[in-house]
Each structure stands twice: as C-alpha cells, then as structure tokens.
Amino acid sequence: MDLFSHLNWYSGVTTEEGEPIKSIPTGKLIVISDTLESEGSFLIHYFLQSIFKSTTTPNANTTNNTNNTWGGSCLLGLNQSLYNYFNIGRKLGYNLTNENAKGNFTFINGLSTPYQWIIEQRVQQLEEQGLDEEPPLDSISQGFAPFPITHLNSNIVNISSTVSSTSTSNNNELKNILQKIYNEFINDHKKRIQKNPSNKTLFIIDGLNILSSYNSGNPSGSFMDIVYFLQYCHNYIKENSNTCSMLILFHPDCDEDSKFFNLLQYEADLTINITNLKSGYSKDIDGQLNFIQKDEKTNTFVKVNPIHYQALDNSIRFFSMGSRIQ
C-alpha cells in the first residue's frame, strides 16, 4: 500500500484510468503531529525518499509522469543536524551530497553552528598569543558540512524598516528569522522552476516547536508571528499549487497550551496524526496514521480512513487496518 495514493484517492487526484496518483499532493500545507510514544520524523525521511526516487526514475520525464515529478526539497532542520539526515538518507538509498549537487536538495541549518564554542575559544587563545590566524580546523571540529548550507544565526535581515538593526527584542529576532526562512524557501523554489518549470519543491520544517518556544516570555506573541508566517507560506503555495507543497513536523504534547496546535490544524490542508496502537504492542505494527483533510470547496474538515504503518531499516510499510502485511 502507498501513502500518497491513499491520500490522493480521497482527494480525487487520479489518472485518466481512475487510479490514484502515487505522488506527494501538491499545493498543500501538510502538518505531521506525533507523540513521545510514536515519533514522526520517519515520515519526513519517507517524503524525501519518495522525491529522490522520482528524480532518478528512468521514466520520470515521460509524458504520463511529467506532472508528477518532484524536482527536490528545501529542508529547514530545527530538530536534527545535517549529519543525521545524511546518515538516514544513506540507509534509505539516496545521498544528500549528490542530490545537492544535482540541485535537488537544499538544507537550512536552524541549529546553532556545531562546535562554535571551539572556534570562539581558539580565537581567544590566538589573541592571547598575539597571532592573527591559523590553518582552518578539520571537518570534525568544524562540524559536518558536505556541501554549502544556509545558517539562520547570521545575516538575518529585518522584517520591516520599523525594526531597529540594534534591537535585541526576542519578538523582533523571531520575525527576522521567519522572514529569512520565507525568503530562503521562495528563492529555492524559484531557482528550481527556472531550471525546469514542471519541477516541484517540497518545503520541510522539521521541528516547528523550536520556533514556537522561541520567546518564552511572551509565547502568545511568538504563536501569532508563526501563524502569520505560515499564512504567507500557505498563500504562496496556493498561488503555485502545481509546483510546491509544505510539510511541517510538530510535537503537540510538548506544548502546555493547545491553542497554537489548534490554529496550526485549522491552517493546514491535511493533518497526519501519528499514534500508537490502542490495542497495545505488536511486532508487525508500529502505529497508526490518522488523517484530517480540509475540503476546499466547503472549507470543512473530514476524516480519512486511518492506516497502519511499520518502520523498517530502509523502508516504511503502510497497510489498511485489519489487512495482512504482504
């Protein structure tokens, strides 16, 4: 069973023969919610695997499949380092370095620069010794960087002219970060469609909780800034509904206030809730995927039939509830 054909069937996205298309839905804001018992990052890797498989399929450029081809992904890593995504990708059969070289993958490092304290400490030592510079640190000391990546902790631009460049307000800093994320996403998409107008881009935010907890002193202010940011992204996705989508991982059980998650679900076109089995442990089933899909015509929400999943070392199995794994 295929996850995307399951979703597209209920959305009415089918081929001329009436078969659901086995491709990531386009023009959608998709939210993944999980729990401590059923962690949801495996779906991000599943989406990436699907994208990179489509770019290397021999028949990817044929007439029947052109509209289903995903050109690549722009991933904002707030939860894990690039090293983690790279290693998991190798297990799943793709190489992020190669995909970046082909223009299929862009990584935005939302974490602090790895081992930055080493660099700062060494600079201080050099100053004490009266030295201006030294040979660059090795790759281990500098952190894992197999290709050029974007960092959010430097060169942050102001979201408007009313924000002072010297302001230290957490609220302004968050706005600046969100503005930069938006710009990076849009620029990455534009570059990809300039290369091939039919290519599609998946924007991924791994760990929206990091942004939502940015300003602990005024959480409601942070929530609304992020909601506005998502609305801007959602509008852009709708305007370019044939060539992009957005995938967001959020941990609702990490937030005491459920208001933000409710707003997030309301904004989303599709919410995938990952839960463990109500019946208890099973060696053949890891958990259940529940779907809440927005009906664009009536602007109401409908539940799609849930499915079970099993996470293996190099793949994910999906199957209808009550069926056997083939």
UniProtKB/TrEMBL annotation:
Source organism, top-level taxon: Eukaryota
Database matches in Pfam families: ELP6
Pathway listed: tRNA modification; 5-methoxycarbonylmethyl-2-thiouridine-tRNA biosynthesis
Gene Ontology biological process terms in this record: tRNA wobble uridine modification
GO CC terms, sorted: elongator holoenzyme complex
Family: Belongs to the ELP6 family.
Protein known as: Elongator complex protein 6
Organism: Dictyostelium purpureum (Slime mold)
Organism ancestry: Eukaryota, Amoebozoa, Evosea, Eumycetozoa, Dictyostelia
